[in-house]
Design a protein that fits this description.
440 residues; alpha+beta; BirA Bifunctional Protein, domain 2; 2 domains
Length: 440
């Protein structure tokens, strides 16, 4: 993509409304624009990052055996009245009526709807276990939306819902998602700690939040310091292995980690003081097992191997992609801007033409741009006539992992400079070597 033809409205000054680093940098980098309180448009460069985050989430959900569908954002109030949550949910639910005066709502979550889909088609235990997920916009009318897309009213959510015949089966489904979440956050360049958590309006008696430690986080958390030493499950993890996934779950939960709602002071104080960590964090995922909380009132049951009908055991599993993007920025930035992990960067590399209009610089940049694009790399080519300082500032701000810099003096020697955005390291190499570094 040529920068001269791309839509990326960079802001030179820090927006006054931005309270935290991620909100400030997302606005300055032209990733988002606020449309009303707590509601944002995702501009092209922000959308590219969001899509990459969603793709990683999707790959790990599929790897764990979940099956993707897509449910509507608007839901009938009748389903929520069946479950008993319509009146209990609170003012965060946006309630509306259609032209026939039927009560509707903009879904804050999808337990009721997915349970309705399940009960309409699944009648036998032979079709279990089943896990259905989607990635969809949701709405919760937060009393105080803040921090940009970190805590917005409209947001994107990956929510998955598991169905099992027994509690034992449901716990295995829970462990599948637990393991998939560890892998997902690791691929996003994040260290997310699973902490025992309150189930809130979702319900149930088993729940974990995945928390990224950050000073700007709204969650107060308590955990054992050794969490930084735990290995992430491998790509070839056998998600059908009950014992294997239970060992992963037991290993990660053997050390103390809890949100403030579940914090046990006595247990925490029993940990040697040098090994305790109390901090603030950002919630980026939440998983629940809630048994038959929804299946019983909504009649979601199957015939078991004993010939009798059984209410299915359920769980739900959420990840917020539109919250993950700013969380990644909070965890990875410097005074010059964002430092994206390669897995979610909007572009793989930015080619910077230091003297647009100079024939040698133009030819060199065109050669590199064409070669990398042909090799399947997502390349941003800064072909603008901006000053060098502006080009460097833009490249650092948007956080592309690598910069290939072509200036008249270097090009005259058949060379370019390659900069690593994360480390700041610069290396001069031949034009051919620079191309081969990224296409080999």
């Amino acid at each position: 993509m040529r920068l001269s033809r791309f839509f990326m409205p960079i802001l030179k000054e820090n927006p006054k409304e931005a309270e935290i680093v991620s909100h400030r940098l997302m606005l300055r980098a032209g990733m988002i624009r606020q449309q009303s309180q707590g509601i944002y448009s995702w501009l092209p460069i922000g959308k590219k990052v969001l899509d990459k985050v969603n793709n990683i989430i999707r790959e790990e959900q599929n790897r764990a055996g979940a099956i993707e569908l897509l449910m509507p954002t608007l839901q009938s109030a009748e389903l929520w009245q069946e479950s008993g949550r319509y009146d209990a949910y609170g003012k965060e639910m946006l309630r509306i009526k259609d032209r026939q005066d039927r009560p509707m709502l903009y879904g804050p979550t999808n337990e009721e709807m997915v349970t309705d889909i399940f009960r309409s088609y699944v009648k036998s235990y032979k079709n279990l276990p089943l896990n259905l997920y989607h990635i969809q916009l949701k709405f919760r009318d937060e009393i105080r939306p803040r921090f940009g897309t970190m805590r917005s009213r409209e947001f994107m959510m990956k929510d998955a819902y598991s169905f099992d015949l027994t509690r034992e089966g449901a716990e295995h489904s829970y462990n599948k998602m637990f393991t998939a979440y560890l892998r997902t956050f690791d691929r996003l360049g994040l260290r997310a700690i699973p902490m025992r958590a309150d189930t809130g309006p979702i319900g149930g008696n088993l729940s974990h939040e995945f928390i990224i430690l950050a000073d700007t986080g709204e969650s107060e958390v308590f955990c054992h310091k050794d969490f930084v030493n735990f290995d992430i499950p491998a790509e070839n993890t056998d998600f059908d292995s009950v014992d294997g996934l239970k060992s992963i779950f037991d290993k990660w939960t053997s050390l103390y980690a809890a949100t403030s709602e579940m914090h046990d002071e006595a247990t925490f104080n029993a940990i040697p003081e040098a090994e305790r960590l109390s901090a603030r964090g950002i919630e980026v995922g939440h998983i629940f097992y809630f048994g038959t909380k929804y299946s019983e009132p909504m009649g979601a049951k199957v015939q078991g191997p004993d010939g009798k009908e059984h209410f299915v055991h359920m769980g739900s599993y959420g990840i917020g992609p539109t919250r993950l993007v700013p969380a990644i920025i909070e965890a990875s930035h410097d005074e010059n801007g964002i430092i994206w992990p390669e897995s979610v960067a909007p572009f793989d590399v930015v080619v910077i033409n230091m003297k647009a209009g100079d024939e040698a610089c133009d030819d060199t940049c065109e050669l590199i741009y064409a070669a990398l694009t042909k090799a399947g790399k997502d390349v941003l080519y800064d072909d603008t006539d901006d000053r060098a300082g502006t080009k460097f500032a833009t490249a650092d701000l948007i956080g592309v992992p690598y910069q290939i810099i072509a200036g008249p003096r270097a090009v005259a020697n058949g060379e370019v400079e390659v900069k690593d955005r994360k480390t700041g390291a610069r290396e001069t190499m031949t034009i051919e070597a620079a191309i081969n570094r990224f296409v080999a």
